[in-house]
């Protein structure tokens, strides 16, 4: 296993950076474009492990896709709602969007489709999605443990109807059905009740659908979220610009909170359809100064003589930023409490347990709760070799600690290939930017 030795920041930072396209947007847009009438061109798309898994899955289903790596562009010839393959085996790796979106997508076809992934994927739930697909007329069987991949979809298309999710473990289940819903034989009514994690990702899904010219009626109130996708509708081939990945931008935006100075991320701002751009609000609570504009975000570290403030925050709407905040908490003046993030236990790894293990190595006192963490910063951070659990966000977030703590080592840095293959090259340049 390889390791990366972090480079402490050479004084305060002054940098303007760009980050690759959003994984969440790219994979949603790939599904819409694959089903569409006509050709689509995704510009600024993410080209990384998770999106290549989606591309290969779609190609296996008979969708024509051309990738231009030099220009970060993907051209897709839509299948007009008729999935060409009548039988296929799809490998989804450890990409939740690929497994869940393709399960719903294949239900629109006619034939038998098998979906599987790595061992960790076989531990990540899919039962709630399978239940609603069965309610809409799709035959889905488990090849292993009930409620988990691998699955076999016996597809004859989806009929319309009304379905509900109650406190879903992942909003990807809802997004998967939304993306497929325009091609059901009748209107699809979806109600989501109870505790719902990551609601901004549902709004991201409908924003992508609308960009491909499918209308979604949605209603959000204090007790439920409701969607209506009227039939018949069809996605249209479009040119679509993918935003920079807001979750991955948080590592760069957080750097001045630790090292001082300022960082600007270009192409991501207040008009973003991604909820995670609002992580700058969290940084502001901790004592940073924020400059916001429609296409740019700037973070300025705490003023001279002031440190980071520990905070108490609910990150249920931004779960992919939890690891970023957890590392920042090492440098705060008082404990930080992060609430309502229990769904992190079913991600690439059990992220709450992983954070507990690695933050403790650095000297923090961590209280791991069923759906949250309380992190008490150490008097002095002790450098350590950080295990990453094949989780890209563990690797990228703990790189932040290396800006201020000499001797930090990140094990298995290649796991960043899931969404950000050249992360450490870019982050190292940030560390020397003055």
Describe the protein in words.
This protein is of the alpha/beta class. The chain folds into 2 domains: 3-20 and 246-431, Enolpyruvate transferase domain (UDP-n-acetylglucosamine1-carboxyvinyl-transferase, Chain, Alpha-beta prism); 23-229, Enolpyruvate transferase domain (UDP-n-acetylglucosamine1-carboxyvinyl-transferase, Chain, Alpha-beta prism). The chain is built from 13 helices and 23 strands. The chain has helices spanning 23-35, 49-60, 96-106, 127-135, 172-180, 199-211, 246-253, 255-259, 279-285, 322-328, 351-361, 392-399, 423-431, and strands spanning 3-5, 13-17, 39-43, 64-68, 73-77, 87-91, 110-116, 139-142, 151-156, 161-166, 188-193, 217-220, 224-229, 239-241, 261-266, 289-293, 296-300, 312-314, 336-339, 365-369, 372-376, 385-386, 409-411. The strands form 6 sheets. A 4-stranded mixed beta sheet has the order 2-15-17-16. A 4-stranded mixed beta sheet has the order 4-5-3-14, covered by helices on one side. The chain has a 4-stranded mixed beta sheet with strand order 6-7-9-8, covered by helices on one side. A hairpin with a 4-residue loop joins β4 (64-68) and β5. α1 packs across α6 (199-211) and α3 runs parallel beside α5 (172-180). The radius of gyration is 21 Å and the shape is globular. The two termini are 33 Å apart. The model has no long low-confidence stretch (mean pLDDT 97).
